[in-house]
Amino acid sequence: MQRFNAFTSSARAARGRSPRSVPHSARSLTTSVDRVAVIGAGQMGIGIAYVASKTAGVDVLISDRSASQLSKGLHFVDTLLGKEVKKGKLSNGEADQVRSRIRGARENGLEGGEFADVDLAIEAVSESLPVKQAIFSSLATHLPPHAILASNTSSISLSTLAASAVSQSGENRASQVVGFHFFNPVPVMKLVELIPALQTDPTVLATAREFAERMGKTVTQSADTPGFISNRLLMPFINEAILALEAGVGSKEDIDTTLKLGMNHPMGPLTLADFIGLDTCLSIMEVLQRETGDCKYRPAVLLGRMVSAGYLGKKSGRGFYNYDATPVPPPPRKPGLEDATESPAPYGSSEGDVDIGLRRLGGKEEQQ
Ligand SMILES: NC(=O)c1ccc[n+]([C@@H]2O[C@H](COP(=O)([O-])OP(=O)(O)OC[C@H]3O[C@@H](n4cnc5c(N)ncnc54)[C@H](O)[C@@H]3O)[C@@H](O)[C@H]2O)c1
């Protein structure tokens, strides 16, 4: 399989288009996307890179502050493609093409000129406001003037992120920022939630929508409010399940099974929290609580304890359930929480599934 091709114009060439001259005015925003950059090669970033190359057929440059996480992610793309070939879903040639369009960045940061030809950058780093603000400032400095600056944030205000999209030379690029919220696992989940910041230019919103559809996704649009549509509804539900566990209403298995079999949910809320990442769930609840000032969004104490203990869910090998053969010490306990993290059969453990593999990708040595 072909690897690490230069950030070629293969996608453009495949569609018979000539190279675009980069406009020098922020008014000349891109209306088509040939080259995508993904910042953050965790479970979401790798999934986004994979679908952008495979389904939308664009060139993808992916970067991460951790070189080992980046190489783990690229290796996972190879594994995923190998499985698609084995299942007869892709030919060897098609898999080679998908892989050849994805390249890992040489630098850990955005410096070095590698991003000078990007039409759309999708930030998918950890759910932390200061970390994302620094990325947006850097994107504003290093992306070409026509590019779109998108964030895969689950809950952070796009208007706040847009306000940090100011280049080192003082150019304000807030109008080029948009929320581009994928769901986990990206190759499987059909939705992209689009979130315009107050500052977003309508051309940016329209181009982002068109590109999400080229990635095979259905698009919904949400106002820039805490948690958007998706996590405003989902996270309080997950948090309530953790509060129920804390209160001893039921065991984790009984809580999950009740929702699965009684409400026809594909997986229980505690399992889902493990798959999303407990650190991500905590960050989202904190955003909801802080920005609304409403105590109904108070994160469960147990959720905070689990994150403090490093039990982040599937990506760290342990959350409410165990996903790793290696025994880990028990977390801090509260009365009534005795079985919160005991080992049990995790839900949906069929090896080789695209989604399970993507979730495992997060099993990295460097945690956020
Ligand atoms: N996990 C989900 O189910 C889910 C769903 C939708 C959206 N999101 C959002 O996607 C984003 C990423 O989530 P994830 O689950 O992939 O997290 P993750 O922990 O799997 O990956 C985050 C990656 O970002 C990298 N990173 C951190 N700081 C960086 C920096 N300054 N520069 C470059 N790389 C950096 C880390 O090394 C890591 O590889 C978050 O904003 C999250 O809220 C997550």
From TrEMBL:
NAD(+) binds at G40, A41, G42, Q43, M44, G45, D64, E127, K132, S154, N184, K315. Residues 36-223 form the 3-hydroxyacyl-CoA dehydrogenase NAD binding domain. Residues 356-368 have a biased composition (Basic and acidic residues). Keywords: NAD, Oxidoreductase. The keyword Iron-sulfur does not apply. PANTHER family: 3-HYDROXYACYL-COA DEHYDROGENASE FAMILY PROTEIN, 3-HYDROXYBUTYRYL-COA DEHYDROGENASE. Pathway: Lipid metabolism; fatty acid beta-oxidation. Belongs to the 3-hydroxyacyl-CoA dehydrogenase family. It holds the Pfam family 3HCDH_N. Residues 1-27, 323-368 are annotated as: Disordered. Residues 1-13 have a biased composition (Low complexity). GO terms for biological process: fatty acid metabolic process. Residues 227-323 form the 3-hydroxyacyl-CoA dehydrogenase C-terminal domain. This is 3-hydroxybutyryl-CoA dehydrogenase.
